[in-house]
């Protein structure tokens, strides 16, 4: 079956299509797509994944046509004047 794997990389979003066996997991599709070789900064132990915008686990089975998404880790950097005080 055919699935897509997407990742919003810092430089340019990546969209890869690949063929996987029926019942393949999210993790198997990510590995099969080759995305981990293209983006070594991806850490599946820390980053969330989803299918069509819904969070799923790495062992979740896929269906034909699914779009696997790897989400960026969200970090916030505070400016010097950005604090919790309202004065």
Automatic annotation (TrEMBL):
It comes from the Bacteria. Coiled coil: none annotated. SUPFAM superfamilies: MoaD/ThiS. It holds the Pfam family Ub-RnfH. Belongs to the UPF0125 (RnfH) family. HAMAP family: UPF0125_RnfH (MF_00460). This is UPF0125 protein ACFOJE_10665. It comes from Azotobacter bryophylli.
């Amino acid at each position: 079956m055919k699935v897509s794997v997407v990742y919003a990389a810092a430089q340019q979003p990546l969209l890869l299509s690949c063929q996987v066996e029926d019942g393949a997991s999210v993790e198997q599709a990510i590995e099969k797509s080759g995305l981990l070789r293209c983006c070594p900064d991806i850490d599946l132990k820390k980053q969330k994944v989803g299918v069509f915008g819904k969070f799923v686990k790495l062992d979740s089975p896929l269906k034909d046509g699914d779009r696997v998404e790897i989400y960026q880790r969200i970090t916030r950097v505070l400016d010097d004047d950005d604090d919790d005080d309202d004065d």
